Amino acid sequence: MYSIDNDNPINYENVEDALNKFLSALGDKKLASEEIPVADSLGRILYDDIVAQFDLPTHDLAQTDGYAINSADVALADDGNPVCVEIVENTHITKNKIIKLEKNQGIKISSGALLPQNTNAVVSPEFTSVEGNCIKVFKSVISGENVYKKGDDIKQNNVFIRKQRKVRPLDIGGMINLGFKKVKVFKKPVISVMPVGDELLNINEKLEPGKIYETNSYVLRGLIKQLGGISEIMPIVKDNPAMIKTSIEKALKISDVVIISGGSSIGADDFTYEAIKNFKNSKMISNDIAMRPGKHTLLAYIDEKPVIGLSGHPAANVTAFLVFVKSLIVQLAGNPRSFWQEHKDNVRLDAVLEKDVESPLDTDDYIRVRLKKQDNGRITAYPYAGKPSSLSTLVKAHGYVKLPADCTKLYEGDRVEVLLF
Amino acid sequence: MYSIDNDNPINYENVEDALNKFLSALGDKKLASEEIPVADSLGRILYDDIVAQFDLPTHDLAQTDGYAINSADVALADDGNPVCVEIVENTHITKNKIIKLEKNQGIKISSGALLPQNTNAVVSPEFTSVEGNCIKVFKSVISGENVYKKGDDIKQNNVFIRKQRKVRPLDIGGMINLGFKKVKVFKKPVISVMPVGDELLNINEKLEPGKIYETNSYVLRGLIKQLGGISEIMPIVKDNPAMIKTSIEKALKISDVVIISGGSSIGADDFTYEAIKNFKNSKMISNDIAMRPGKHTLLAYIDEKPVIGLSGHPAANVTAFLVFVKSLIVQLAGNPRSFWQEHKDNVRLDAVLEKDVESPLDTDDYIRVRLKKQDNGRITAYPYAGKPSSLSTLVKAHGYVKLPADCTKLYEGDRVEVLLF
Questions:
Q1: Are residues A211 and A331 in the same domain?
Q2: Could you list the mean pLDDT of each consecutive 10-residue stretch along chain A, which spans 421 residues?
Q3: H-helix or E-strand containing B51?
Q4: Which of A263, B56, B62, B272 is geometrically suited to a Cys-Cys bond with B154, CB 3.0 to 4.6 A?
């Protein structure tokens, strides 16, 4: 049941306080690990440091085309006094032959090829001239010149990637490069989503007057997928505390986090609150939160598992998910929130507000905005004053602007930061 | 075979020109469509506009708790002259009953409930007092007051979501809300990836001197997945034009785009170039491109399918993929590159350069950088001068800074824009 209420927000708990209490109650709890093929690890969070098992390159390699020689043999060479070095083979080395040379011998070599034993440098052809089976070398070289040394790229036993990184395509390549076939990652969080409401219909049912298709579970499923979680969508539950309780019991058995979507507005009876209170091991963290939309978000733990009650209003539902559940999942999944990963996971865009917006004092307001690129290249944000029950304004919106508790008004022309949906 | 070359970039083709030629040659070609369940459409590109099949709300609804009445019945009401309206039921309407009232009748109603026939407004209890089975109404109301009108949110036959949007979780909810079970989207592009090189080992083989594990296909597979494509990884092919050609033939049969990874550096013989030239219906678009790394990127069409040769050097490989293949896939998949979607698909971060970097004139340089958040909150970017063959610097890097062709130097302290990997 949807209700449009305009209660005074005073006595509602500040968003930051509620979030901190909610996350602290989780303590150090993290998801367990599992071992999976490196090739399938995209987007997963590394459980352990990745430590190099061998040097890369594994051997000294030529870094340019030229002649592999020993620098000691040409130590006295210069323009006026070239030194002759015997070329030991007609064909040059290109591939993976391991060759051993003697003193004063050299060999033609291609970039990337293994440097022969007893050589330590590659001299470029421009400093040489060929005479029979000898080359004249017209300059001295230092040991290691034009050589890609063993271990130059990665040293054995060094940490190559720190744990808790979210694996990128390049990281997969890096691990394969070091011979890893399997990798330990945090398990994916499993999140049950339970839609609650007498008015809700399954998409396969026929629409009736006064009823609506249940949509929140579809939105939440997508958001959970984007966060790397697994969603378990439960059947729709009626507005009935006993039935909600039974469904929560089932959800707790199969998931790390339980979301109850609907059944928690103050306009209607607060069924979710009642259902959670009836659990022996329940701990209510916060119920009335100073945010708009989403003030009837419910944060609790049952048997030490996080249980979140989201309002059935689509805007409140998604906003509270982004503020509370997203943060929770990030913490559970062991993600250290490196600033650049945080930036990738929360894409923002600066824009100029197209219309004044107001917000009560002491309430965090999350204003849906539609972005537009004007002819002059300027990006503008049009704020929707729409009802929180309106899913269509969310679909038309591209993100939201947050007005923090101490800000009561933003003006047309103000520069705002939009968090993209 | 890897080669480190320092050729003069003069006569190489400008990146933008090469890209434009490559994309123009594709013409209006787009992927075909397929119909899939709305629930599975996350990240897919809409093929058609989504048009509302019915109004939302489907009926007039009460927007607050109160009494549903007809505004005409209380047109003359004010504080001094309240109008009495008969309450027709003891229980109030909360759900989906359709009720019909007569003149001068009202009914108690909850927010969200269906407005009875012959009523057109909801009066708030604060402007009423109850006397027996009547309520006194102390003010006049206008038609539609506190009513959420049929079609207020979404109107039948209006375009709800424009085609070519990349579906977000909220969009799935929006489509379900409108009763859509299936939706037409662009097919996923299928991209074959063919690793080429005598030095390459499969991860299941034992590492030998002078050989390396083949990694580029793993990186490309991840990048393709992030772009919503399907990758077909082909077996490793030797540096042999005839074998490369055979493998390209196979790849063309099963994919929309073919990537040949390796076999196209100038230091080694240019096997890929030779293989492509041997196709009757091949059309070479560009071969030598003024970019670093990636100058030996090869852009071609065979039988009107795009075929891209990427250097085997990991840095060149990924850079040329991001510049050319990513753009191609976006165009093929029908994505209109709305500016906010482009912003989400290419996440950037401003940083301060930690060290001077130089670049030849007329070459686009893509400099890998490692980001760091300093104690003062400032984000710095450390440029890697590493070899293009170094995968480890890519893993340690967080993105790249582009030095366009007309820029030959950036200085320590310069503000740069980093495109995150």
A1: yes
A2: 41 94 93 97 97 95 91 94 87 68 91 90 93 92 95 95 96 98 97 95 94 96 97 96 96 98 66 93 94 93 97 94 96 86 95 95 95 96 83 94 95 98 96
A3: strand B50-51
A4: B56
- What is the DSSP track for A241-274? HHHHHHHHHHHHHH-SEEEEESS--SSS--HHHH
**Chain B residues touching residue A97 (CB < 8 angstroms):** 210
Question: H-helix or E-strand containing A86?
Answer: strand A83-87
Q: Residue B1: inside a domain, yes or no?
A: no
For tokens 């785009």, the residue is B257
Residues A332 and A207 in one domain: yes
Q: What gap in Å lies between CA B5 and CA B360, rounded to an integer?
A: 14
Domain membership of residue B6 (yes or no) is no
Task: Scan residues 96-115 of A and list those with Cβ closer than 8 Å to B.
Answer: 96-98, 110-114
Show the DSSP H helices in B199-338 as ranges: 216-226, 241-254, 271-277, 314-320, 326-332
Per the CB < 8 Å rule, is A267 touching B110?
Answer: yes
* Closest residue, chain A, to B214 (C-alpha): A177
Mark which residues 150-179 of B lie under 8 Å from A by CB: 153-154, 160-161, 168-174, 176-177, 179
Across the interface, whether the CB atoms of A63 and B4 are under 8 A apart is answered: yes
Task: Test A421 with B168 for CB contact under 8 angstroms.
Answer: yes
Question: Do residues B310 and B376 share a domain?
Answer: no
Does B328 share its domain with B379? no
Indicate yes or no: pTM above 0.90. yes
List the single best residue of B170, B296, B317, B343 to mutate versus A (max A Cβ within 10 A).
Answer: B170
Same structural domain for residues A121 and A260? Answer: no
Q: Do A308 and A4 contact (CB within 8 A), yes or no?
A: no
Containing structural domain, residue A373:
347-420
CATH number at residue A85: 2.170.190.11
Question: Of A308, A341, A374, which residue is a domain's last?
Answer: A341
Q: Is A122 on the interface with B (CB under 8 A)?
A: no
